[in-house]
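INFO batch 0412 | record 1 of 1 | parsing
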Amino acid sequence: MRHYGSRLHTPEKKIWLMLAAHLFWIFTILSIGAWWGVHMHGQAKKIAALETRAGIDPAAVNDHFFRTQRMIGWESAAFFVLLMASTALLVWIYWRDMKRNRSMHAFFASVTHELKTPLTSIRLQAESIAEGFAGTDGGRRNILVSRLLEDTMRLESQVERTLELGRIEGGGKLHVRPVRIKPIIERAMNAWRDMPSRRMDVRADIPDITVLADIPGFQVVLKNLFENTLRHTHVEPVRISISLAPEDRPDRKVLCFRDNGEGYPGDPKELGRLFLRGSGSQGAGVGLYLAGRLMSAMGGGIGFSSDKSGFEARLEFLNGDNADG
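INFO prediction complete | emitting tokens
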């Protein structure tokens, strides 16, 4: 049930692909038009020859032949003009929509960036308040502070996802290079073990390997996987295991991220689709999709599977040991 994401296409590549498709379409239509013109010219000559054999006045035959040629010429010219006009209209519509999409991406990026700064400040203040209440008897007060901290972190994560999604969908580049991923995974594990409202058992059994990755992008992928587990796992404690899959290709490394949740009730092939939300989910449906896009942008892929024993994501990386530099 593995499903690996496809490579990203930047807006510039899409424009060139669209232009190539239109040029191919124009060439095909012109070829058909040329064939039709040659065929009609041949038919007109045959008709003129038959009229001459039938004893019709040669002047009338020539006049009829030239009128047929003019008709073919005007029809071909009108057809070509309509073809070029329709093509120009399609190109203009696509260009206008692309500019509008870029404006929308810029707008949402600006709004989410403005939200990120005050959210970070609120989270820091909530952490300070939580530290000040540590060890006191204000049980309800501590619970409220913990909820404030978790809600702030959840909102901050959503803003970060929106920023990253806008950057990736807008053709943003990643800085892919050889990276030791074990320290990154250990830092992520330590951060998620400290969740105040959930008991989490996070374990990793991986060697110190090097893969081709973008560090911020890989951190976002891990964060989205952890949040997906917390959102859809309703058992205590939440158990997460991260391991290295047996090597079947020397140029690839595959990490397995698995939890002990109830699994996805639908078709696992749907996982990773944009805006897909499970029943009762409070997420936006972009976490797994963004993870797939980031993994594809790093030259790898991601596969999802799910059953009643839990959810599994397989992260495929290019082997960094074979990279130059």
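INFO post-check: Confidence is low (pLDDT under 50) at residues 1-9.
INFO record closed
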